[in-house]
Amino acid sequence: MAKKDSVNPDVFGAALLDFYNGKYSEDITVISSLTEDDEIPVPYLFRDYAKMPEIEQKALQLATGKILDVGACAGSHSLYLQQQGLDVSALDVSAGAIEVCRLRGIEKALQADVFELSEASYDTLLLLMNGTGIFKTLKNTQPALKHLASLLNTNGQILVDSSDIAFMYEEEDGSYWRDVNSNYYGEVTFQIQYKGKISNAFDWLYLDFKTLKAEAEKAGFFCEKILDGPHYEYLARLVKVD
User: Fold this and answer.
1) Mind listing the domains of the chain with CATH numbers?
2) What global pTM score does this model have?
3) Tens digits of per-residue pLDDT, 76-91?
4) Is the confidence at residue 119, as pLDDT, over 90?
């Protein structure tokens, strides 16, 4: 991993603003503790409903009531829901992302960390594009879910997607290699880089469904799998049980 900066640059925000303002010239580089560097194509973050994966389309179909789009990024999900006449708020920690959301016409956009919100009530929380990532670690999953529950109305729901990345540990003979002394295999550390600026390292969590279900039930949710994707990803719905 590259060295941390003392000030954490808004890498996603810079890339999104460049694209919106017609200055797109490169993609976001993802530096991972698990595998080789990868890229996030910035245009993909501005996709419309027709170009979204089936899992995201299904989540948007299931979103009801007062909706909070957590980690809204460029606001593609929020924009679609708003166009359908739904009451949706886009939320992101990135100032640049929220500026882009507003420029794209999203009426309710808030720069904040969802775990710092309080006294809010929603019927649906959307956590998409590996939404379990914001839990950071397996150990933090249950307290994170309990906080999210505090933001929900009675019978409120969380629509969240993730991936079981066990396949990344598969050997040529079909067996799986894992260090039994290490943390949960879905815990990854990332940095993102764009036009010479690099973020501080941050933890990100990929949860297999069985583990998500167990943690969700401990936190007071009913949890069901809604849909499997083509490559180990899935959509789940967590309903608050009062």
Assistant:
1) 52-184+209-240 (3.40.50.150)
2) 0.92
3) 999 999 999 999 999 9
4) no
